[in-house]
Specification:
The protein is an alpha+beta fold and 525 residues long. Helices cover 35% and strands 24% of the residues.
Length: 525
């Protein structure tokens, strides 16, 4: 009997343990459901009234509401939340976007815009804007003239101690440059006013592109007699030379060279390279040579200056103050520079291939030979280029034939290949030089001569050959053979584009190349 009682007690204990385990499982399963009830905080009831229900705990949300919330979170790609605090912070982020900082930038001041306009090319401005820019430049040069005049007055007040020094030469150089730039700007303003009134216009040069002119290796030959007399005691003068290049309102100056230490061989070489951009083919560049004479220093004067520099305090004690020498016109008067014009030359497109130019207005006692040497090169800034398929007419044994070619317009030539890839790998099948074109303008071929649409014509000429015979393409006229080129485009738009590019290239070549017999490469004239 005792063993049965023990077995019954163990069975009852196991049943009690199983009941406790089931209760714990129920409590664990009910915990996540209870956590949902904190998703939305309950509204606080008004004072004096109790919330619904016997207890103060809010009711849990239903299963439908939970499913709807989960579906919304999935649509918005919201990650799963594992705590109430994380859920509340996520709700705050989604419902309340962070504030955005908006910065309103004010437009830059007018001064910055003016500086940009001054750096721009003047041909993009209207005449009124050009006149305003030139007026500002005139005021700036006037200020430089006033400062240079004051510096020269101070040098003159010191007597002969600063005569012929670097300070005097630099002040005189700045004065002559500022004076000539001011005069050039005044002349350009007058020209713009006349052009605005319609008095002076050049319609023949309107379609041509602008170019640039480069001047380098400027040399001033000296007289042989002067070079031989330089070592003698009679030569007590030093000649300082300065070259100004003028084109319209632009004046560019070279550095100073003197006969004391600047002679190389029998000439004065200037190492400056001067470039003038944005000029038309009808340009006129004026080259002016200015000279100033100073006295050669003596040995005694050098010694006294050396002692003066060594003991400045002792000399100041005994020296009396020098009288201040003012300009005859008053302290605000403008002086005239001591640099005098001793020669001038002009350069245009026809004379730009020369390397020697004669100087006008050269005085008899001037050491210059009367000529100036320099290398002038002209360039076209805008090169016309175009590529595409064209169909070209040719004579084959007396019969007309059309050949489709890949054509490239560049450097005044139309080169053509069979395929586009051949342009990089092979030499062209043939080429057409626009420099030999005698057609006044590229025009459309009339339908009565050619039934193929979008066909235009250009005619070139070359010296006649012994094998030339008249056919559908060639026409022999004595010593000259003319070649007729019929070229057809695929569409009307392509034909208009090619005709415009070819006409523009012809205008550029005829304006910038006055010598068709001279061969050119690229855009160098």
């Amino acid at each position: 009997m005792g063993e049965l009682d023990d077995l019954l007690d163990e069975a009852i204990a196991k049943e009690e343990e199983e009941e406790k385990v089931q209760e714990v499982k129920k409590m664990v399963e009910t915990k996540p459901k209870q956590s949902v009830k904190f998703a939305e905080e309950p509204k606080a009831p008004p004072r004096g009234r109790k919330p619904s229900g016997s207890t103060g705990v809010p009711k849990s949300t239903s299963a439908d509401n939970i499913k709807s919330c989960l579906e919304e979170d999935r649509e918005r790609n919201v990650p799963l939340l594992y705590s109430v605090e994380c859920y509340r912070s996520q709700r705050k982020i989604t419902t309340r976007p962070p504030p955005q900082k908006i910065i309103k930038r004010e437009p830059p001041p007018r001064k910055a815009v003016v500086e940009r306009q001054e750096s721009m090319v003047m041909r993009h401005m209207s005449n009124k804007e050009k006149i305003q820019t030139l007026t500002a430049e005139i005021a700036q040069q006037q200020a430089i003239i006033h400062q240079s005049t004051q510096a020269i007055n101070v040098i003159s007040s010191r007597g002969d101690s600063l005569k012929g020094t670097t300070e005097e030469l630099e002040a005189e150089r700045l004065l002559v440059i500022a004076t000539q730039r001011r005069l050039a700007c005044l002349g350009e303003v007058q020209r713009l006013k006349q052009e605005h009134n319609g008095r002076s216009r050049n319609p023949s040069n309107e379609g041509a592109s602008k170019g640039s002119v480069t001047i380098a290796n400027i040399r001033l030959p000296l007289k042989t007699e002067y070079i031989f007399s330089m070592g003698s005691k009679q030569d007590r003068q030093i000649h300082h030379f300065l070259v100004l290049i003028r084109n319209g309102a632009h004046v560019i100056a070279t550095h100073l060279l003197s006969t004391l230490d600047g002679i190389s061989g029998d000439c004065l070489p200037f190492t400056n390279m001067i470039t003038m951009n944005d000029i038309g083919s009808d340009f006129l560049v004026e080259v002016e040579v200015y000279s100033m004479q100073t006295r050669r220093p003596e040995a005694k004067e050098k010694k006294s200056n050396l002692l003066f520099n060594i003991t400045p305090k002792k000399s100041k004690r005994n020296a009396s103050p020098l009288p201040v020498v003012c300009s005859p016109g008053g302290p605000g008067a403008v002086r005239t520079s001591n640099f005098l014009l001793v020669g001038a030359a002009r350069i245009n497109l026809q004379t730009s291939r020369n390397e020697k130019f004669s100087l006008n207005k050269v005085p008899f006692l001037c050491p210059l030979e009367g000529s100036i040497h320099m290398k002038v090169k002209c360039y076209i800034n805008a090169e016309v280029e175009e590529r595409g398929f064209l169909t070209m007419f040719d004579d084959v044994n007396g019969f007309g034939a059309w050949h489709r070619r890949w054509c490239a317009l560049s450097g005044g030539y139309i080169s053509y290949w069979k395929y586009p890839d051949d342009e990089r790998r092979k030499a062209p099948i043939g080429s057409l030089s626009l420099k030999e074109c005698v057609s006044k303008k590229i025009e459309l071929v009339a339908r009565e001569y050619c039934a193929r649409p979008n066909t235009f014509e250009l005619v070139t000429s070359r010296p006649a050959k012994a094998t030339d015979e008249d056919n559908l393409v060639l026409t022999c006229e004595g010593n000259i053979t003319k070649i007729k080129w019929w070229i057809s485009a695929d569409t009307k738009d392509e034909r208009i584009t090619w005709m415009d590019k070819l006409n523009k290239a012809l205008v550029n070549l005829r304006q910038w190349n006055k010598d068709p017999s001279k061969k050119q490469h690229g855009t160098l004239i």
